[in-house]
Amino acid sequence: MTTDTTTDTTTTRTTTSPPKVAGRQPSEQAIDAAIDSASRLLRLPTMRERYAEIAEASAREQLSYRAFLAELLLAECDDRDARRAVRRVHEAGFPRAKTLADFDFNANTAINPATINTLAGCTWVSKGQSLCLIGDSGTGKSHLLIGLGTAAAHLGHRVRYVLAAKLVNELVEAADERQLSRTIARYGRVDLLCIDELGYMELDRRGAELLFQVLTEREEQNAVAIASNDSFSGWTKTFTDPRLCAAIVDRLTFGGNIIETGTSSYRLAHARTQRAAGGAKSSRHPGAKSG
Prior knowledge:
Blueprint: H1 28-41, H2 45-60, H3 65-92, H4 113-120, H5 123-126, E1 130-135, H6 141-154, E2 159-163, H7 164-176, H8 180-189, E3 192-198, H9 205-218, E4 223-228, H10 242-253, E5 257-262, H11 266-283
Parallel strand pairs: 1-4, 1-5, 2-3, 3-4
Helix pairs in contact: 1-2, 2-3, 3-6, 7-8, 7-9, 8-9, 9-10
């Protein structure tokens, strides 16, 4: 009789982490190089430029690693938002830099600062409403138009500025080249269309109809702001067809905002003040001393 004996053998495998080796801490130069390389690869310019500054501040304030990381990421987000705002302002095509903070409300008391500050919140842009700035030359219409457009761009809205005559000429050329639909669609995509100097020149029926198409495309969907040196009753000089003129006024005023900037020219008053100051200065004897 043969007896077989079977022995079960159990194999135990133990997994351990590699032992820490003294002296493996990277040098400061290696850490800086790694952060620089990774930040470039991930396109994080603010993190690359400010990580050392924020790390030092976090150490002084004894922040946790997570708090330090949050500060670093928020700095990147803030700078990215700022860069986007600058890009939107540039893409708007403003002829010069104008902000609402630069506007001198004391020079034109016809304009209510509270009303402008409310408009600067751009709720009307989000709702697709219109804004009409009506007043004589030199009363601040273009400044307010550009300033409100700049505020909208900083709040994340896509903005486009254009002179009325330039817009009409572009539409006429597009129609001649059978590109009208594409051109109107391009203007229709922006959140706020700023049309300056409306009323400075007479438009023929074709030009007025093309402008009307742009306004109709945007009605109650995307906002439009215009600046005009003439009251609505005087727009018949710009839009010679009375029915078309009435339709355009209706498009711009229905549910919109109207700001009248008055008739007193700030530029004219400023020029007179400068001339008066210069005349008074030159009238003094060169050797005279003020008492």
